[in-house]
Fold each of these.
Amino acid sequence: MDKLKSPYNDEFFKAVLTLQTVEECYKFFADVCTPKEIDTISQRYAVATMLKDGKVYSDIVNTTGASTATVSRVKRSMAYEDSGYKIVFERLGK
């Protein structure tokens, strides 16, 4: 994660934290990301949700269209004690 830390990323994440509604997120992310980038990020979150729910790789791949490599990467990220996925799932009550 330390590789990600930079003043530009800090400012970007601070900007994201100011968003208050899903509609504001759509507007902001439409400005800063391509539709494909948004789809890729959303797909990874969907994979994480399905992994958390105990789904098997084949179901996740068939449902989301993610590659097995992506599913493996997300699963590996979720295994870390300080995983961002864990933080979000806890706060969402999942």
Amino acid sequence: MSERPAPVFLERRSYRRRRLTDAARLLPVVGLLLFLVPLLLAPDKTDTARTAGTSIYVFAAWFGLIVCAFVLSRALSRGTDAAKDRDGAE
């Protein structure tokens, strides 16, 4: 009988790093969608704009994107530092 090939598994650290990189690449698209939400919402039957609520939403989304970018950058830099330590490079 023929031998089964060994299953191909990615190392857990490299798999997580790739998923973090994918999330970092997707963050601007998510930001664009978040900023377009107020434009997509149907206005009330009045002609007045909901400026206060829209402004709060935009700044909350902006703050959330900043926090997400910070967390992703810390996680990605931590992975780079661990790889440098493991390889013995400076």
Amino acid sequence: MAGFRLVEMGKYIVVFVTCASKKEAREITKRLLDERLVACANIIDGVRSFFWWKGKIDKAKESLIVAKTARKNFIKIQKRVKGLHSYEVPEIIALPIEAAEPDYLKWIDGSTGR
């Protein structure tokens, strides 16, 4: 991969959080950025979700936060999101970044103050 490098396993992650509204997603995103827990967050509005809830299949129109950060921030992100989120069981999941442009990774480090 020209211009990219493999990343130290687990050092960087992408965090996904579904929210009940665009407003909730913006509020959570702003807090995560203000606290430098994430370097960047995208909000994707109009996500249609289908899921099991309380013994039956349910559905919802949601907004999805896609945030890039260092793995060591995950526990703080999880606590912050749970404290702000309207859902009884919010989705807060992380996937590892396996390869990335080196300058982007430096930017994540600098932006999260770590």
Amino acid sequence: MKIKCKKCGIIYDDSYYFCPNCGEKSNDVNYNYTKNISKPKTIEELKEWYIQKNLPDENVTRFFIGKNYST
């Protein structure tokens, strides 16, 4: 289904939660919108996710996965 943005007037698919043109949140109830995000549930899944996203090495980011550096 198509909806019209109340801010900029563009017509877009209702599968978007925000207007793709101006970013305005849809005022219409959008039942078709679902966040399709799979979250890593284990340390191993998080490591795989980190590699898949091509994120920088831990020496650059200081983001340590599976290592305890607490004092």
